[in-house]
Amino acid sequence: MPYFQPKLILPPTLTFTTKTILITGATAGLGLAATTLLLQHHASEIVFGVRNTTKGSLIASQILSSPQIKKVHPNAKITVLHLDLEKYESVLSFAREAREKYEGRLDMLLLNAGTGSLRREVLGEGKGHEKTMQVNILSPALLALELLPVLEATARRTGVPSRISWVGSFVQFDHSFGKIPIPEEFLAKDGGKDILGYFDDEKSFVSMARYSDSKLMVTMFVEQLARVVDPELVVVNDVSPGMVRTGFGEYPVWLRGMMAVFFGLKARSPEDGAKTYLHALGVAESESHGMYLSDNKVTDRAPITTTPVGEKIQEKLWDDMLKEFLKLDASLRIPKGQTV
Ligand SMILES: NC(=O)c1ccc[n+]([C@@H]2O[C@H](COP(=O)([O-])OP(=O)(O)OC[C@H]3O[C@@H](n4cnc5c(N)ncnc54)[C@H](OP(=O)(O)O)[C@@H]3O)[C@@H](O)[C@H]2O)c1
């Protein structure tokens, strides 16, 4: 928990001129604040990936007609596309549409949308994955891989590395994997059981820690992805906005009340929190590839990530996620290494 959050200052010369930036979950909180801030920094086009396109379009027109944007960026553009991270089919059709529309001109992908809850919910009428896993890690990971070729093509055309910035959190330090170790049968590389099945199982669901576990998995996936993506083409990083006053999460009233008091004292405004996104997208360079950024600095990840067991979890997650993704899309290209 960040008890002290420093004031964040972006370089006065920072600009996103010519950049097309896709943001998931831009209808509220940090995603919305980041859109405004990116447009104030002259982003050429923002693409919303939102589950409610009516709400998305309303927010887009409110932003574009606001005096602050009209004054600094009268040609600002926002395109609204449908994306529901609860459903793989939606991720695949969204990625198809984005690839067609933005071939060779998508510069940045900001994986911001997320969910948190104390309640276990299994999607797909009980046959799918547990919801926090699906929304926070599985769908965004598939989306990142589906859009990687477009981001790489843009980098080849412009000569400037593209970006994938994935929103993680300091709560990764509160994961449950230390107290409740993942059984070895799910970690064995050859012939081991599917680790995604473990996370769907009721026995693995620690209600107070599932959100933290999902953010630990984000940091692990980002590190693993960075091992096979060339930072000269796409810089991949994991950004924590710190503690931010938004309406995040589907939490019970008593917890919301406690959070409101605590966040009221300690948290950043969404506008200040969004500065971490602009830093991850436009200031941090290849030194942030595969890294966790907190308070706009490369920062150590949760200690488990550097242990043998953490490494095992990270590699098994990667392997089992890729297996699942290839079943959904046999044409998905998995990057093999850092070759241009
Ligand atoms: N606030 C914090 O202190 C804090 C700290 C660390 C990390 N974070 C992370 O920051 C990110 C943004 O959170 P926030 O605080 O800005 O929360 P928020 O105000 O609740 O915004 C969450 C966004 O995600 C979207 N979303 C949720 N489920 C979705 C789904 N199934 N498909 C597509 N979009 C979906 C929401 O869309 P709807 O409008 O349709 O609900 C909304 O736009 C999250 O990843 C969160 O984990 C937040």
UniProtKB/TrEMBL annotation:
Designated name of the protein: NAD(P)-binding protein
A Pfam entry, by short name: adh_short
Keywords on record: NADP, Oxidoreductase
Organism of provenance: Cadophora malorum
InterPro entries referenced in this protein's UniProt entry, alphabetically: NAD(P)-bd_dom_sf, SDR_fam
KW Oxidoreductase (keyword) present: yes
Similarity field: Belongs to the short-chain dehydrogenases/reductases (SDR) family.
Molecular functions per Gene Ontology: oxidoreductase activity
